[in-house]
Amino acid sequence: MAATHSSPGLASLDFEALLAPFGLSCTDAVAVAVSGGPDSMALLVLAADEAKKSGRPLHALTVDHGLRAEASSEAEQVAAWAKSLGVAHTTLTHEGDTPVASIQSEARDIRYGLMGQWCTANKVAALMVAHTQDDQAETLLLRMARGSGVDGLSGMAADVTRDGIRIIRPLLEVPRADLMPLLADRKQAYISDPSNRDERHARVRMRALKPLLEAEGLTAQRLAETAGRLSVARDALAGWTQAHVAGCVTFDAGGWAQFDRKRLVTVPLEIGLRSVSRIVMAVGGGVYPPRLHHTRALLDRLRAAEFSGATLGGVRFAPHRSGVLAFREARAMAEPVPIQGAAPLVWDHRFEVCLADATGLADAMGEDSGSWSIGALGVRDARRLRDELGPEVLTVPSAAASCIPAVYAQGRLLEVPALGYRPDGEVPSHQIAFVGPMRAGLTEAPIGIEA
């Protein structure tokens, strides 16, 4: 249902100042996530004003999760509002199964997945989302209730990269109440989402406690300030972890990691936990770190006198030569996906794939590019390549090598870029970069591709 806020007064938010810390140039294309609620509509109004002044390319995105019958008509309404503001709009529709458990969490993953794919395909520099100071405070409280550590209690980051897409939150220090006068002054209607009143959701129940918490001094501003202070500690610990991992872990373009067990774990507990957690994220492609108690159990096993192996987060840790090899579990690998021409894509949340020479590969291999896909090498082809290339080239066990990304055409192996392999002996036409360590905050650049 659309509503118009009637609070009087003129909002004086300096959006250009809020946007400045992100360092965007006026030529950087930006997308705005717009559900139609008051926060996202306020962000759209502010972003549209700024784009008119700067000449910045701006596009509004709305996701229809398929959860509510009225979602389609609401998306049409948002499109009309965007048009009135001079902003192009696209509705992204989820075609898969409708979330039934952990609805808000699954819907969030669907939303970011669809918007991320659109941003990648359209070369968007950043995706703006409308989280406010109130959202930050609620996030902190929810994570406190779950017993989160420093990272969780640092709240949402104002600037983060997810699956290769930069997500920025320019309103993260702005109270929600400061946005309402803007909507009133611009006579901008918005949609009231009934799920925001559904007490089956923990965030809604936490929001209902706001008056009681404020009476005790736990205002949204103070909670957000606490999250900000903890984020400083988080960043310091992250820097220490990155330096430690850089000194004792080697990542390979094939998607695995090797390390000396004693060197990895002979550090203070917090750094050990973070190091193990980030290795799991890097090799397993996880967006979020594994649960603390699972990470602690793995660290304890790595610290034991004897280590026979373990698995966590889709990653298998196994003794290898004089150290430990961490590699993707085959059963956790992503399914093969089609390669759409020269458009870059992210596969298995860990690899960026781009095509350098479609014509050359098609001519050499006699396969039309429309039939190409990227997927796991598989045990059979891994064993065949070990015999062909020799163990000095393929140095890891077949179980690890089977997870290397490879290019296929209707089941026929065309090339394995991470190994520099093509059946005709030519240089592979695809470039595949292992970006898992970079996304986990362990390296500054992808592995296995020249800058």
Your description of this structure?
There is one protein chain. This protein is an alpha+beta fold and 451 residues long. The protein folds into three domains: 216 residues, HUPs (Rossmann fold, 3-Layer(aba) Sandwich), CATH 3.40.50; 83 residues; 102 residues, no CATH class. The protein is built from 17 helices and 20 strands. The strands form five sheets. It has a six-stranded mixed beta sheet, sandwiched between helices. Strands 9-10-13-12-11 form a five-stranded antiparallel beta sheet. Strand 15 and strand 16 form a beta hairpin. The longest helix has 29 residues. It is globular and about 70 Å long.
The total number of structural domains is 3
- Beta-strand portion reads 15-25%
Name of the CATH superfamily of the largest domain: HUPs
Structural class: alpha+beta
Number of helices: 17
Proportion in helices: 25-40%
GO cellular component, one term: cytoplasm
GO molecular function: ATP binding; tRNA(Ile)-lysidine synthase activity
Pfam families: ATP_bind_3
Subcellular location: Cytoplasm
Task: Name a few traits of the molecule.
alpha+beta; Rossmann fold; 17 helices; EC 6.3.4.19; tRNA_Ile_lys_synt; ATP binding; ligase; tRNA(Ile)-lysidine synthase activity
